[in-house]
Fold:
Amino acid sequence: VTQLESNYGFYIGLGLAVFSSLLIGSSVILKKKGLLRLVEKGGTRAGKALGENIGQLLGGGEAANFAAYAFAPATIVTPLGALSVLISAIQSSYLLGERLNLLGKLGCMLSIVGSTVMVIHAPEDEEVTTLDEMTLKLREPGFLAYAAILLAVCLLLIVYLAPRYGQRNILVYLTICSVIGAFSVSSVKGLGIAIKGFFAGQPVLQHPLTWILVITLVASITTQINYLNKSLDIFNTSLVFPIYYVLFTTIVITTSIILFKEWVTMTVVDIIGTVCGFLTIILGVFLLHAFKDMDVSLGNLPQVLQSEEQAPHPTCLIWEVLQDRENQVGCFRI
Structure:
């Protein structure tokens, strides 16, 4: 039996995660393109049909992402969600005519490299394969303490910090989304195991954990969407998505380490490689979002660098001192 055959579940999950990113990223661009055409031509019937088709595409992507957790570790599935951002950025440059600058292209390359490194070094073996094993993992003191800390932090953010600082600090709402994401991803992982057991003939519908996971998933996703929409309404999208990706993925990977112990069988080299791959993806996503409005290309790069050198010092302050008969304008550097 080859390694490919013995770890077929990992490769199925990997394929589903990439396919999910392709569908989700494409649906975003097709929706935007369809709305632009709808504005030009008008018509509600065509718009309704377009919305249904895009909804099916997005639903298929979410379903594929859901199924990916049933086969592959969360350590690899969650970070690969960044590929949807990459795919939408590339497609927007071709389908919508939006220009992808040099830093954006570099960010795409870094995201691909980071994803490849994570795939190479990520754990391939599943530590939990049945609902009974999942129940035992959930009852472990380490995870119970971790879950209690997450709930306490979440309640503190929702009850105290969000009403006072949510409108001013971008981290408040996004931290709530990310902390809740630990429970939603764990629920998706458990339900994926339940679905596999259902098709294997196991009485998963009679298992109480199945329904606990369903309730947890619905409650957590509803809360995530609520606070993510609040954040998008207030803050710049270029900041929201990179910060949310970093916080969400970090907390999910931490939860995966504590609950599923997916890293137990990994060597030190694989652990370092996985962390470096994740950091590379973060850098790529940051470059793709933070500098997307800059007019930087390989052709005008020398001019951009030259203009930066000739620009006035950013800390040059202008001040006015009023004297008896004349005004003096001075400039000093800090």
The radius of gyration is 24 Å.
